[in-house]
Amino acid sequence: MNGWVLLLLVVLVAIALLAVNGINIVPEYERAVVFRLGRVDDDPRGPGLVFIVPLLETMQKVNMQVVTEDIQPQDIITRDNVTVKVNAVAYYRVVDPVRAVVGVQDYRFATSQIAQTTLRSIIGQADLDELLINRDEINSRLQTVIDEETSPWGIKVTSVEVKDVELDANMRRAMARQAEAERDRRAMVINAQGEKEAALTLSEAARDLEAHPAAMQLRLLSTMSEIASEQNSTLVLPIPVELLRFLDAGRGLSPETRA
User: How many CA atoms lie within 13 A of 72 on its CB side?
Assistant: First the structure.
């Protein structure tokens, strides 16, 4: 009788240990994918307290947080035959834990490889100027392609950003010379436009002075006043014939009388 009691106690303790081992706590940011006799349960469990039937069920936890994946620098030849080194970063998360476990062996490694090959493909189809200027468009194309490739694995790619574009020293010097030449060209154009505007203004002023001879005299007197304000200047003023005629007309004398 004592032997049967001892055996019963052993069995009860074993069952209790198995039951305790079947109790699992799944955090809020994880889900549990359960396999029952090798077959997957389509309904992931958690978060909270999850019970797994010992010996019959197994569980695999899947992180549902956003993953930041650093895409390693890639040596890429652009469409205009310029060699650049580009690296990027991808942000994605698991939206279907079952497919992330069953559909691919290692979804993080697979997503990283897809991101690298897509980066080489998209950058290789773009020109260098497009890569440097239209960065947002490049990022959008990368995000769309990577998301389509990883969607069967239950992965949602939220964003892809090109972090850095490295050029070799010769290309950087060539771009610096191009930028300097462009600045010189703009400076010359601006200077020429200023000369043209000044010439047009002077032409308009000359036409106005020709139409009104007295304005020329007023301008002459104004210039004399400005020069006279300087203490260390000597002013030699030639008297124009028009001014003498103006004075004679004021006194009522004709050129023959003055002669």
Answer: 8
Of 84, 168, 174, 91, nearest in space to 130 by CA: 84
Q: End-to-end distance of the chain based on CA atoms, in angstroms?
A: 166
Three-class secondary structure of residue 38 per DSSP = coil
What is the bridge-based pairing of β-strands 23-26 and 155-167? unpaired
| Tens of pLDDT, residues 203-257 | 887 777 677 666 666 676 677 676 666 666 666 666 665 655 655 665 555 555 5
b/e sequence 197-220, b meaning 16+ C-beta within 10 Å: eeeeeeeeeeeeeeeeeeeeeeee
Encoding tokens for residue 193? 């436009």
Q: Report yes or no on whether pTM surpasses 0.85.
A: no
